[in-house]
Amino acid sequence: MTRTAFILVTAIVLILAFGLGWFSHWLVHRFIRVAGGDVDEIDRMAQDLHDAEEMRDQALAFLESRETELGSQLAQAEAELRATMDGLRAARAEAEELRLYVETLNARA
Asked: Residues 12, 52: one domain?
């Protein structure tokens, strides 16, 4: 192999290596590249996700406070119901006593 042929073959191999490297670089960046518009969309989606998480946290806090409030109202209503039932029971007993008293007065007369 002559000196000129060796230089020519070496130049062709280097050009092919450069071309193959450039093509592989272009191919890799083609598949993993994030365009400017994509970054804006990702930022918008991240902000929307953050807003949704905040709304969820607020909804959970509201539900928790509402559940506590309704629980206390239920306990109060149950206490009032027990007091009313006790009063009704006492009124029925008193009415029964008065009925018996009236019947005994009517029986004597």
From this structure: no
Please list the pLDDT of the chain residue by residue as tens digits (109 residues): 799 999 999 999 999 999 999 999 998 888 786 655 677 888 899 999 999 999 999 999 999 999 999 999 999 999 999 999 999 999 999 999 999 999 999 888 7
- Its domain, for residue 15, covers 1-33
Extract the tokens encoding 89: 């029971």
Q: Among all chains, which residue has been given the structure tokens 């709304």?
A: 55
Q: Does 29 lie in the same domain as 55? A: no
**Cβ neighbours for 34, distance < 8 A, ≥ 6 positions apart:** 42
